[in-house]
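Q: Predict the assembly, please.
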Amino acid sequence: MSKISLIIQREYSTRVMKKSFILLTFLTPILLVGMIALIVFLGTIKDDKIKNIVVVDKSGLYKDVLRNNESYNFQFSDATVDELKKQNSENSDFAALLFISKDLRIDSTAAVMYSDKQVNLELKSYVSGLLNKHIEEQKLAAYNIPNLKEMVEKSNSDIELKTIKWGEDGNEKEASAELALMIGMLTAFIIYMFIVIYGAQVMTGVVQEKTNRIVEVMISSVKPFELMMGKIIGIALVGLTQFMMWVLLTGAILFGLSTTFAKDLDMEKMKEIQELSQKGMQGMPTAEMNGEIADFMTAINGLDFVQIISLFIVYFLGGYLLYASLFAAIGSAVDNETDTQQFSMPIMLPIIFAIYAGIFSAENPDGPLAFWCSMIPFTSPIVMMVRLPFDVPFWQIALSISILVLSFIGTTWMAGKIYRTGILMYGKKTTWKEMWKWLRY
Amino acid sequence: MSLLSVKNVVKQFAGHRALDGVSLEVPENSVYGLLGPNGAGKTTLIRIINCITAPDSGEVLLNGKRMTAEDVRHIGYLPEERGLYKKMKIGEQALYLAQLRGMSKKDAQKALKYWFEKFEIQTWWDKKVEELSKGMAQKVQFITTILHDPKLLIFDEPFSGFDPVNADLLKREILELRDKGATIIFSTHNMGTVEDLCENISLVDKSKIVLQGNVADIRASHATHTYLLKTRKEVEITDFELINNKSLNGIFEYTIKKTAGDTNNSLLSKLMAQTEILSFEEILPSMNDIFIKTVSGS
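A: Predicted assembly structure:
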């Protein structure tokens, strides 16, 4: 077995066998699913306590307008605001106080809501909605045009803009900008996370070898470059393993949950959705309510997943290799982990910049920021992933990958030179100037 | 013929010169000692021999050819700063290091079994390095250094951290390795081991070699012509200078120094007439004395 594969094997097996790795690999999907379940669960719980709202209506016009619903109960009172405030602070029996001083048609700011707490948005929009609708109707009625209300309602429109893109073969595909955005951001964020987490692992690994003083023993039996590459590749495999495990486990848990709770789901509805999505794929008109779901399904079908997944792996590895070698060089130049911060800053900056550039690129995936950031190798793995679901011309992808590959060969070569000298330097604070010198040896 | 030659090596660090024109020849199949006080440049020299640092000028030859990084992979090198992966098990780690030095897994396992038994540490196989003491870890490291049967072995301070029993074990192993044909270079402060082990030494002080050569020759050349005489009865010393005398359990001991003109035999024949002579031997200076004298004198 060659030396580099031995090193890869050691780096991989010692990391994968660690308790922390096993724990994190198995717990993360459980936590993730648990968190989603918790959010869904909390969303279904309604605040079933009815809140009392006391209304002081000086105009006397809105008694019928403010209707009770399952959350709010309106009570009308003739007392003054000050009296009610006092009463509430004594035995707090209402949640808010609505004071209407005069006809809202004359003064639209005449309604004020008081509360000892911040009034929640739901209540505010409920009350203002009722009042607005009422005033609107009154104003329309004042025009004295018969059937005006019906005319206005008919003239209301709710246009939904469908986006369809056509491929080179002329085939049309329904596209969803929202879905593209979601997938782009998700893949970009995963790449970002893995570069940061596993890049840092490369760095601490190198620092530990140095502080453990094992480096001198290793260097007398393998080339420094082999040692560095072995570590980088070994950790890349650890990262891929963890990622695969997460995908598989999350899938398995979700599948397990859905089969266990399948009885609770409305089977009829499931069938309906399935049928609708099939219809949607054939481009047949669908009912408006379920149309959105169908659109979503067709949009998913519209994305080129083979391209996205294969390029995800390319950019994942390319970006990781580019940064990991730099992290290794930093690790070799310092004596202990606390010193790494000073030097890792210039490497962390472009990664953090890349994630922001990615977010802005999502708004305009073909703009100059998106284009240039998907060419620059330090940002391209993240930014290009955001752009991909929006269809990027082939030549741009090819150019971006070529630049990335050339760059990581370049940084690895550079890092190898710094690493070679750095790992055997002890007890001296390294400076940028010195690292530059090592580079030119 | 010398296996390893160091020729006029100079190494300059920022602010001071670590090695200044150092040359030495290590004969094949011998034990070579590299002595010197702390900070003299021993470790720097060893690192240059191992191609870990490059000399500013001068060269290192192995079998007459310039030493390359590839040659170093066949050397057994025990660095002064010893280190092992703390979280790894001893056995796995030793196996890993052996494989990196080019042994097959099977050979490495066999050799490790032999050495672990020899050093009586079979029970450590599944222990982690962090559970071992410094001396124990050192034993493991020594084994990993010699496991692949290298022709040239370089040990930097091999005895530091060992108790007397284990130091003795190590000495025996070094001699055994030499008898099997290996050439060994080691650096040390421990002068006792030098007398026991080394055929040749170089004494490095302040970046230069101040003393070099065969151990027996060096001791002879530093001889002060002092002798220890033991007799049955009290005698009168003439011609020789009496430095010290004492008597214990009926045996009389005299430390005497030869003065110009007289020979040992003439002294002995005079004494023999007076009493029975139990012993008469030259007191050679220990390497320790020579070391201190040379280093503090220069």
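The two ends of chain B are 31 Å apart (CA to CA). The longest helix of chain B spans residues 164-179.
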